[in-house]
Queue: 2 jobs
Job 1
Amino acid sequence: MSGTYRSLKGTKDILPGEVEIWQFVEKVVHDVMRAYHYGEIRTPALEATGLFARSIGEHTDIVGKEMYTFVDRGGDSVTLKPEGTAAVLRAFVQHNLGEQSGLNKLYYISPMFRQERPQAGRLRQFHQFGAEAIGSASPALDVESMLIPLEVSRRLGIDGLTLKLSSVGCEKCRPPYRELLIDALEKVASQLSEESRARLRQNPMRILDSKDDRDQRLTAHVPLIKDHLCAECREHFEQVQQHLRSLDQPYVVDGRLVRGLDYYTKTAFEITSASLGAQDALAGGGRYDLLAEELGGAPTPGVGFAAGIERLILVLSKKKLSTPAEVHPTVFLVAMDDASRRWAFRQAILLRSEGVVAELDYLGRSVRAQMREANRQQAGYVLVIGERELETGNASLKNMETGKEISIVLEDLSAALLSHGEKEKS
Ligand code: HAM
């Protein structure tokens, strides 16, 4: 490492050699979203701070401690988006998408920003792919939200995932449950960790999620929302599970599942991987039937998920699955003099316009050094060009793998590369 500046803590450069796996994951995401018929949406990196405070919740860790919020030069408080759902719902309401179509199925691949303590699988700028289905209360869509990240994982060769499922109730059943929970927690309040004590009145359900062993023990028998759902939420939860069973999709009901965002109603879920360690959530999501209205739109039910791409790639790297290779030039044009260099440059531009990956030397290297570079880049073919070749219009094309050379007419270079490339592939 050298230089005056470093990338900020919790942020990462994705360099050539590593970016190919990102491109591959992104391609799989686009393919799966296409099959599930979700359309891509791109929202800005910056939003009004109020949007997130309102939707994610004032008393969540994200809003309370983790957002990159600043006052811009115009005096407005703006925030780098910590998640995608609020932004997508803002766009949905703003552009009246609900009036144009009964159901909007939208997806995104985007960087997100949270000022968390960096550790393996936890960054300050990270990337999610996610989807939101807005306009229907059908439990089938809750299940779609679970299946999409599972299908992406399956296509990437990742297995051993656990789907954890719960229901967090609605505005009818949650308030009475909350009181029940607070009553139970107050009995042990004095023994709870400081953090949990602070959460008791503001966000008591998060106490269930405490990593503190003592908190875990003390709350082992407190009432869980899944056992206190209203009839409508119970029925919805049952239907979600019926769909999963009929699809033979394994899942576990986890009554202590608590999501770090307040907008959820009914379904909440997480997909975890045992190979990830402490930050084991690969994806999370759920239903948010009140969010559109909360943001000033017409009451519109919705459900979605988001998955962490860094974590997905971490799982892939642990499994040592074969990842797509770096791109190697089909041909490297080695030039012997200035005139040949000009010819090679023109020829490379032409080949590239035809879709051939062509490379040449830009560093004024000797012929030998150019050959070494072609080798290092693992070029498929090398064409050496000099005065004689330009004069006669003939040259020899060397297959770098077999070492064989074939004579070609320079004018036919691209045809020769394409036909040999094709033959070798078949
Ligand atoms: P979330 O659970 O906060 O949900 O984030 C979803 C996923 O993003 C996590 O499971 C994890 O893989 C990844 N992730 C979160 N924080 C970090 C981080 N600091 N570093 C690396 N990866 C991270 C949401 O964001 C909701 N918007 C999901 C949703 C969509 N619910 C409904 N629709």
Note: The two ends are 44 Å apart (CA to CA).
Job 2
Amino acid sequence: MSVMTDHSAEISGQLIQIPQTIAAQRTFFKSNLTKDVEFRIEQLKKLRKAIVTNEKAIFEALDKDLKKSKFESYGTEIGIVLAELDKLIQNLKKWARPKKVKTSIFHFKASSYIYKDPYGVVLIVAPWNYPFQLLMLPLVGAIAAGNCVVLKPSEMAPATAKVMTDIIEGVFDERYVAVFNGGVETSTGLLKERYDYIFFTGSTFVGKIVYQAAAKHLTPVTLELGGKSPCIVDKDIHLDYTAKRIVWGKLVNVGQTCIAPDYIYIHRDVKDALITRMKEVIQEFYGKDPQKSKDYGRIINEKHFKRLTNLMQAGEIIHGGNTDYEDKYISPTFIEGVNPDDPVMQEEIFGPILPIMVYDDIDDVINFINDREKPLALYIFSKNEKMIDKVLTETSSGGASINDTLMHIGNDHLPFGGVGESGIGAYHGEFSFETFSHHKGVMNKSLALDMPIRYAPYKTSLSILKQLMKRM
Ligand code: NAD
């Protein structure tokens, strides 16, 4: 007989609780309370209040997990969630109403509507890099759409997971919103159960595991995954803005951003000037020694620190390359002369390392991108409209920014999501509400008259039927 450790006892206790919690959520969902829009708005307001009240604790947790500055923590995590809450609270009544759509004369006499039904019980699994935003943002959408929710924060950002758990448990009954903390075992336990929708953010590798688990029950999914997001720099650019916007997008959260520019392809004519300016910009942003800057974060853990230092073995380091194991610090690092077969060009970098490649012909860059998995984001810096149009038309990516990096994620009028290996589905703003709602097509047929033509025995000629069906 094996002796159970405290940890394994805790895990098995938790695993037993999972089916019970889901069953309780199903019962709660059946009460129809979550279908009441006023109830949903009230819950969103309660969540908003709790986040504002706990702002200091969230700052501290993000500092502990990722050494995120308050500015970045607010700008990329707390503020984004509060803005989403405000938007959904403000618009929910309008969005949740059944939407009247046209009905053709063929169906005379009837009216048609799209109902936005909640799915039921939703599972949300989050990663560690924006641990607050990436759990809370889908939660807001799921609540707004009228679902019950099971949450799994990332175990790799434990301080933030703890604060979020305290917030959720302080605000919601677990029959409505429940949190399960833990790693792979907990996730695997959660994925054994049946849900009505699964929203997963994380790596493509785990995304495939989640998709397989969902397929067993035909559960619909959103998969927000990763990949290598290219950044193309034409010769016709605004040098200063290009340098600043690339360096910023690469070094926010020290490159641990799903849509960070992974590598850059620079036109040969501007290569030297751009690299020189980017090096200056790094110093302007973070000083001579970024390790001393309060605005420069740290690598999440030792595993990723080691992975990243291994990736630095390829090519030639032309800037940075400084590391401090104890501090999990890696300086902004540029690498030239990488080979497409090098690990740094094979896997998503997810750190402050930027491989730089040079091109003469844009078709070569487009072919390079199209020969690989579809990226989550693509960046193109150019003043040449034709060139921008060519790149956008001839490549496929989850999203894109022109003459900037990351910024398309911040506009909630745009859907955010991947394509191919970078993901399935999208969210943010109204897209979040739509994502967590089933669109039920409803036709309401009048009882004022009843056209006999459709009933057997069929007496109408085929040619009349053909004429009528042209009006569908
Ligand atoms: P991950 O896939 O390792 O983990 C994500 C979640 O899945 C965590 O909660 C983890 O506990 C769980 N998990 C891990 N292994 C599992 C398994 N075998 N079975 C079931 N669940 C498992 O990802 P990560 O390291 O936390 O995050 C980094 C990745 O996420 C990067 O690839 C990044 O690009 C991607 N990402 C994507 C987005 C997006 O919006 N598209 C945002 C942030 C991060």
Note: The chain is about 45% helix and 20% strand.
